[in-house]
Specification:
single chain, alpha/beta, Amidase signature (AS) enzymes, eleven-stranded mixed sheet, 38% helix, globular
Length: 466
């Protein structure tokens, strides 16, 4: 197998190649570090490359492998990236801000600990928008992250660097996070599978929760099986978590091999009150539901009204900007504007209550529906810098419209998967998202795996990376 093919081999297959002694952890890490050195200056997908640490870890794991250990963790020796909103001990965590270039913590976040325990080797910290606030990754003081499929376009945000890295073969799989579509959007922009887990599925230890359960870590992978297996690794309660779910009866990976049964599926191509998806994103949904009908599912065109979230969701979400504690002068204009809008604690709590009441109504929609199929975004990815000269108010309105299918799952805490279905006229991937009942990741994973088998994807790779 040549080095490019190895770089694009799914993570689970890489783990098996290592177990079969067909490739060593050190060989695999060296393949990725070489690609990062060549391509990251163009893509801007990594803020920090942990080359020395990765090589040292890979050498240790290669020596362990030579000793024929009786058991290995599931992803022993497989390279992964961590989004730079999460702490890796001894490595800067910048949150996408130059003001935090020297912000080095002495602990791993809980999700990073689980990733290390699973045997992964961390290659580096991937690019994020400033404080994870935006659906494009163009933070001040850093090069913009670019879409490997078309460098003029964004890979999305805020997990844009993570998605670009996986899509370009700069890591096998990636950890991201989603507080308003920040896994699903980048997955959609870059042609990956991205899972936004249910609230309480993945711990936020040791820090806790800043914005009332809107955000969670989750996986970005080349296929459903990789994403499901990484979700297995990430999942689980850590002492003191404010939200938690019981462990599933079977692994998420095992669900990729199980049929979903005949499901009741709703779909929509218009988000009230934001309007219709563009022709490309609408057609992606229609093609998907057409396939779902052929597979025997009961499909109905209907979608909840999201109007009730328009007022409270931004109040809760923008509080995260203030919680970081950076002064206004250290922030980009849009975050500075959001910071200026933050009200009192009582206003925040009123917004939380209002959002929770609305979410009860939205979740009730799923009493008679198993899965809701929506666009990920209402139109195709924007170009790098496309909104750079707009006022903060206009930028915010553009963002709210573009990503409007996503925040509902963050508000309700429901699981969702972004799933690629094709390409637009600019050569950039197009995706749909599947939203499930609370805590029903298994259903979504089964359905996504069924769709993946029924709608085989093109195996082409971005031209840049060859």
């Amino acid at each position: 197998m040549n080095q490019e093919d190895l770089a694009f081999t799914p993570a689970l297959e890489q783990a098996q190649l290592i177990r079969d002694r067909q490739v060593s952890p050190l060989e695999l890490v060296e393949v990725y570090l070489d690609r990062i050195q060549r391509l990251n200056p163009v893509l801007g997908s990594y803020f920090t490359v942990m080359a020395d640490l990765a090589i040292a870890d890979a050498k240790t794991k290669t020596e362990i492998l030579a000793g024929n250990p009786p058991e290995l963790p599931p992803f022993f020796g497989v390279p992964i990236s961590i989004k730079d909103l999460n702490s890796v001990a001894g490595v800067p965590v910048t949150l996408g801000s130059p003001a935090l270039l020297n912000n080095i913590l002495d602990y791993d976040d809980g999700v990073v600990t689980r990733i290390k325990q699973a045997g992964f080797i961390i290659l580096g910290k991937t690019a994020t928008s400033e404080l994870g606030s935006f659906p494009y990754t163009e933070p001040m003081g850093f090069p913009p992250a670019r879409n490997p499929w078309n460098l003029e376009y964004t890979p999305g945000g805020s997990s844009g660097g993570a998605a670009a890295a996986v899509a370009a073969g700069l890591c096998a799989i990636a950890q991201g996070s989603d507080g308003g579509g920040s896994i699903r959007g980048p997955a959609a922009c870059c042609g990956l599978v991205g899972i936004k887990p249910s609230r309480g599925r993945v711990s936020q230890a040791p820090a806790g929760d800043r914005i009332s359960g809107l955000a969670t870590s989750g996986p970005l992978g080349r296929n459903v099986a990789d994403a499901a297996a990484l979700l297995d690794v990430m999942s689980g309660y850590i002492t003191g978590d404010p939200y938690w779910l019981p462990d599933p009866e079977t692994s998420f990976l095992s669900n990729t091999k199980e049929p979903p049964g005949n499901l009741r599926i709703a779909y929509g191509t218009s988000i009230i009150p934001f309007g219709n998806a563009d022709a490309t994103c609408k057609q992606a949904v229609l093609d998907t539901v057409g396939q779902l009908t052929k597979l025997g599912h009961t499909v109905t065109e209907k979608c909840p009204d999201f109007s009730g979230l328009v007022e409270p969701f931004p109040v809760v979400w923008q509080a995260g900007v203030g919680a970081v504690g950076l002064p206004p002068e250290a922030l980009q204009p849009l975050n500075r504007w959001l910071l200026s809008r933050i009200g009192s604690a009582s206003q925040y709590l009123q917004a939380v209550l209002q959002m929770q009441v609305v979410c009860r109504e939205i979740v009730a929609f799923f009493d008679d529906i198993d899965v809701l199929v929506l666009p990920v975004y209402l139109h195709s990815p924007i170009k790098i810098g496309e909104w750079a000269n707009l006022s903060p108010e206009d930028t915010f309105q553009n963002i709210a419209h573009w990503i409007s299918p996503c925040p509902v799952a963050n508000a309700t805490g429901q699981p969702a998967i972004a799933f690629p279905v094709g390409f637009d006229s600019n050569g950039v991937p197009v995706s749909v998202q599947l939203i499930g009942k609370p805590a029903a990741e298994a259903t979504l994973i089964r359905l996504a795996a069924q769709l993946s088998a029924a709608m085989p994807r093109s195996q082409k790779r971005p031209e840049l990376v060859k």
